[in-house]
Every structure is written in C-alpha cells, then in structure tokens.
Design a protein that fits this description.
74% helix; membrane; mainly alpha; transmembrane helix; DedA-like; transmembrane
Length: 210
C-alpha cells in the first residue's frame, strides 16, 4: 500500500505524476474544505522543473501531459466550485469554523468588489488560498455564469501554464534546479501574494476610519 501525503508536492508527483497534478489542482481550485490545504503553486512549479531534461537525466514528467492535466484541473475544478457556491455556498461559508477559510472568503469578496468580476477572477487565481474560496464565493454572490466561465478559463489557463512553463524554463537553464526548489517555491508564493497588498491596505484603512 502506497502512502501519499496530498499536501506534499514531491509525494504527489513521485507517486502519480501528471495525473496527481490534475486531481490536486481540481480540488484546490474549487473544493472549499478539501482544496484549501492542498498545494497549487507549490505543485505546478516543481512539476514544470521535472519536465526538463538535463545532460545526464531524461525528463521525469512529460511537459504536454502536465500542461494538459493542470489546465483541465484548474478549469473544471473552478467550474465545480462555482456550482457548489451557487447551490448553498454562502451557507457553507457562514457555517465554517476555520478562521483562515473565513478570512480568505472575505478577501475573495473584496477582490470581486474592487476589481470587477473579470479582473478579480484572473488575479485571484494567482493568490494562494484565495483562489480556492474565490470560485465558490463567486457562485454564492451571484456572478453571472457566462461571465464567470469566460474569465475563470482565462485565469486558469494563464495561471497553470505560466507556473508550469516557469518551472520548465528554470529546469532547462539551471543544472540540478530541483535541488533549489524549496527557496524558489517560496519566492513564487511571495510574488503571488502581491495582489493582496491593495486589498489588505484598504481593509486596514476602513477599520481605522470606523
């Protein structure tokens, strides 16, 4: 029996390869309670690195398979999350006892209000934790289905493809790039949090004015 830690990117990729990317990204993109704690950025970037060949090693994953699985997981997962949000998502968010889920839901609502549906759905894809809550929140808040579908596809493809290709580019140019994955993933996550700065600044300002 194979023991797999779904929150550990190395474990998922070593055991399931591209199929693991599809399943985890699907859950992380829309299954609120389960997906909230799964890797997203920290799975796609290393997967891209593992698609690169080196002088003494063949690629451990196939690039086209990882790109396809990441895109399908991102797009289908977000649409499922939206449908779950449309049918009872607000009640689920209200009942949750997890503080981080409630905070991420509040940030998702602020993103939608600040940037509008299209821009928020694209920007939100790149923000860890927020992207898992964003799609159910969009359904609960009544975002039109056609608008949501269009922009979540755009955001999902941009997010999944850019991270996989960034990892692939690194793997093809830096020898033994997988030895430096931990600090590189930390940089990716830090950069992905930058869009939250205006939202957090505005939230603090509004609290001070009360």
């Amino acid at each position: 029996m194979i023991a797999v830690n779904p929150m550990d990117s190395d474990s998922v990729l070593a055991t399931f390869g591209a199929l693991g990317v599809l399943v985890v990204i699907f859950a992380e993109s829309g299954l609120l309670v389960v997906g909230f704690f799964l890797p997203g950025d920290t799975l796609l970037f290393p997967a891209g690195v593992l698609c690169a060949a080196s002088a003494d090693q063949a690629p451990r994953l196939m690039l086209w398979q990882v790109l396809l699985c990441a895109a399908v997981g991102a797009v289908v997962g977000a649409q499922v999350g939206f449908l779950l949000g449309r049918h009872g998502g607000r009640a689920l968010l209200a009942r949750t006892s997890k503080r981080r889920v409630r905070e991420a839901a509040a940030r998702a609502e602020k993103l939608l209000a600040r940037y509008g549906y299209g821009k928020a759905l694209v920007i939100g894809r790149f923000i860890p934790m927020v992207r898992t809550v964003l799609h159910p929140a969009a359904g609960a808040l009544g975002v039109p289905t056609r608008t949501f579908t269009l922009w979540q596809i755009v955001g999902g493809l941009l997010w999944s493809t850019s991270l996989v290709m960034a990892g692939y580019a690194l793997g093809t140019t830096v020898p033994d790039a997988d030895d430096f994955l931990l600090p590189l993933v930390a940089v990716v996550v830090a950069i992905s949090l930058l869009p939250l700065i205006p939202v957090l600044t505005e939230s603090r300002r509004s609290r001070r004015e009360r």
